[in-house]
Amino acid sequence: MSIDPPNQCMTVESAQTLMNQGVSCQVEIDLSAPFQVGDRVKAKVMHPETYTRLPRYVRGKVGEVVKDHGVYVFPDTMGQRLSTKPQHVYSVRFSAQSLWGMDVSPNDALYIDLFDDHLEAV
Amino acid sequence: MASHHHHPESEIALRVKAIESLLVEKGIVDPATLDTIIETYEHKVGPHIGAQIVAKAWVDPDFKARLLDDGTGAIAELGLTGFSSEHMVVVENTPEVHNLIVCTLCSCYPWAILGLPPTWYKSFAYRSRVVIEPRKVLQEFGLEIPEHVEVRVWDSNADLRYLVLPERPAETAGMSEADLASLITRNAMIGTAKVPAPTSLNPPVAQEISP
Amino acid sequence: MNGPHDMGGMQGMGPIPIEENEPVFHSEWEAKVFAMSFATFINYFPVDETRHASERMPPGEYWSSSYYERWLYALELLITEHNLVTPAEIEARVIELAQSET
Question: Which chain C positions have a beta carbon within 8 Å of A79's beta carbon?
Fold first, then answer.
């Protein structure tokens, strides 16, 4: 996926291809994963003024990596046309109580997909 | 930048026409392309596609196993991928776990599998509340989840898109894949409903003899 | 950015607005805004740039706008920022169309 768009009018055919096939955000490179399934990780506390896919409600909270989805382009930099900055994306599980306190159900959980740049080791 | 809010519909419609005519005039968008896009999302893609996937998973255990292990790959086997459904994760509802899908930051949704999202999915109420009080939100949809069942909320904030594999109603034993697909609703594949039993399809006698 | 879009966990948003049998688009302009945005995705603006554009809507405006009004805001912001169309051209065309319709 390139950073700079082609600046071309979309034809009917290319619209059909885009709708039927989509665009992969995955990057086929061999990049070692800093985090493994089962690791406890902390969503970074950060407040960039620019685009980020790390919502406030998980920042500073500790969760567990439940799946490594592989390597994807990084939306936080793509949104600014800075770089693709490929990195691993993980499904991270947070207990509902770790996010919202003890008044919520102890059984419930929130799963969210976080990138390497959103996470730090606990 | 002009402000849009509180403007009457007619004013917005006029503004959209102005922008469209400029973009067409400058060769930035092609009217035929716009028509194709609208036609596709109004009439071609929709929850019937997701229903096909779910029905197949209900009748084919090997497919179901592949679907839960690698949603993207299994859905590609059926040739049913597309824009905003490139990377799919399928999560299974069971008697112990109830899954539901949201995108708190915008309204990401598996367009190629379920069509464009309904208004409630895009609403501020759903986006804000479902992560903090999923059970109350589900009550508004008429779903009471017992306390011992784990509610899992999936915030699709990245490039992965989610589909709930709902529980198959017990009353559907022996039904064909196509008949099963017709029972499966959009909300059941987002997690705000269960698939209803086919009361209107099954005569009472058939219900008595089904396991 | 800590914008109006980052609403997970906010309270006071009211009941879920459930509409039975709703159409894909509620008006022709919604369909056109969607299609123009889609037609410029990838080809002119990375999708994440369009998401960010709607997040840059001032919070008061964001919270009082409908979904496709926010898409319209993002589209207009990006086509003018990238100099595909100027704000003056849009205003002039709005007036021109309004006059031709009366």
Answer: 46, 48-49, 51-52
**Domains along chain A with CATH numbers:** 26-121 (2.30.30.50)
- For A54-71, write each residue's pLDDT tens digit: 999 999 999 999 999 999
* C19 lies in some domain: no
Domains and CATH numbers, chain B: 9-43 (no CATH), 46-190 (3.90.330.10)
Distance from CA of B117 to the nearest CA of A (A): 16
CB-CB under 8 Å, A100 with C43 = no
| CA-to-CA separations, B187 to B47, B126, B141, C20, C21, in angstroms, rounded | 9, 13, 9, 11, 12
Confidence of residue A4 (pLDDT cuts 50, 70, 90): confident
Structurally, how many domains does chain C consist of? 1
- Mark whether B108 is an active-site residue: yes
A8 at B interface, C-beta within 8 A:
no
Count other Cβ atoms within 10 Å, centred on residue A47: 10
CB–CB contact A9 B152 (8 Å): no
